[in-house]
Design goal:
3-stranded antiparallel β-sheet; alpha/beta; 14% strand; formyl-coa transferase, domain 3; 11 strands; 36% helix; 365 residues; 6-stranded parallel β-sheet; 15 helices; Rossmann fold
């Protein structure tokens, strides 16, 4: 039994954030109907590559859903969605402020007819403020939310986090808001409105960096693979790749120093404490790199981990796919697909009573 069985969701969203929120709800057992415009979800055209003619992005974000096509700009489309709303618990929308109001599908217009409806709206900047009507996309939010300012290195071009972290996390917050609103509905007996925005999500990721700025008066910068307040806590070169070493306290640094054959580092005044290591991080990285680049990633990782020094090789997806830990956890799930014989997908990163929510339906095409 899944926790959201008997919960019905209509998802009118496109792209990444909204569909990801809807997919989380579907994974947890909700009956999710994806409502697409006649031209289809925009992600269907994202490629190449295509997976047997289908966009991998669309396939990754729309499992466990069913789909119908409606043109909400027509009387017939509006009549149909209102018919569906009569048996719906949650409506997901994602558009610029005012767009749903013009269609008569805003929360204030619907709550009188559908008093138990949970209405979740994802926007770029929220419904108020000077930028409320501007478009928003993941890289824009990584830029204006400050994430790019602390990613990469100052002397290089700005670097975007390599996953759609703002879109996906906004979807996650939306799903969490919906769950909270459903729980609240159990107590109040009526529906509620959930609001999330890409901009607020971006800002929320910067909470520690804001605290650093407020404490120091200096805007934090990027440190490549490292962390601004811990050293060594970053990537180091090996003879055939890279390895992350996370010696995040004095005890771990002593173990690392011994493991690399330089016990004297841990008593060197430049490196004896985390604060001194941060102050002398450039020299420390140079010394550690001189040792690590003489060893293979696999051998060095095995050696450091055997001595309880946290370390991990930097892997690509081909290498990750062969990891025994990945296979043991069963997070990669498969199901029959009519046009993709080897269809697989990534499940939710959670289990309930030892069971991961299952892949029940392939993405609708």
């Amino acid at each position: 039994m899944l926790p959201l069985e008997n919960v019905r969701v209509l998802d009118t969203t496109q792209n990444v954030a909204g569909p990801y929120a809807a997919m989380i709800l579907a994974e947890l057992g909700a009956e999710v109907v994806k409502i697409e415009p006649p031209q289809g979800d925009a992600t269907k055209h994202w490629g190449p590559p295509f997976w047997n003619g289908i966009s991998p992005t669309y396939m990754a974000l729309n499992r466990n859903k069913t789909k119908i096509t409606l043109d909400l700009k027509t009387k017939e489309g509006l009549a149909k969605i209102k018919e569906l709303l009569a048996n719906t618990d949650v409506l997901l929308v994602s558009s610029r402020p005012g767009a749903m109001k013009r269609l008569g599908l805003d929360y204030d217009a619907l709550k009188a007819t559908f008093p138990k409806l949970v209405y979740a709206e994802l926007t770029a900047f929220g419904n108020t403020g000077p930028r409320a009507n501007e478009p928003g996309y993941d890289p824009l939010m990584q830029a204006m939310g400050g994430i790019m300012s602390v990613t990469g290195l100052p002397e290089l071009e700005p670097i975007r986090v390599g996953v759609s972290i703002i879109d996906k996390t906004t979807g996650l917050w939306t799903a969490l808001g919906v769950l909270s609103a459903l729980r609240l509905r159990d107590q109040t007996g009526h529906g509620h409105k959930v609001d999330t925005s890409l901009y607020e999500t971006a800002v929320s990721w910067m909470d520690i960096h804001f605290a650093v700025y407020w404490a120091s008066g200096v805007p934090p910068r990027g440190w490549g693979s490292g962390a601004s307040m811990i050293a060594p806590y970053e990537a180091f070169p090996t003879s055939n790749g890279w390895i992350i070493i996370a010696a995040g306290n004095d005890n771990l640094f002593q173990k690392l120093s011994a493991a690399l054959g330089h016990e004297e580092w841990s008593s060197d005044p430049r490196f004896a404490t985390n604060a001194s290591r941060v102050a002398n991080r450039v020299e420390l990285k140079r010394l550690i790199s001189e040792v690590t680049k003489t060893k293979s990633t696999k051998d060095l990782e095995s050696h450091l981990m055997s001595l309880e020094v946290p370390a991990a090789g930097v892997l690509n997806l081909a290498e990750i796919s062969q990891e025994p830990q990945l296979k043991e956890l069963g997070i990669i799930q498969s199901i029959h697909h009519e046009s993709i014989p080897d269809f697989r997908s990534v499940g939710l990163p959670l289990s309930i009573d030892g069971g991961r929510p299952p892949l029940r339906r392939p993405p609708p095409v």
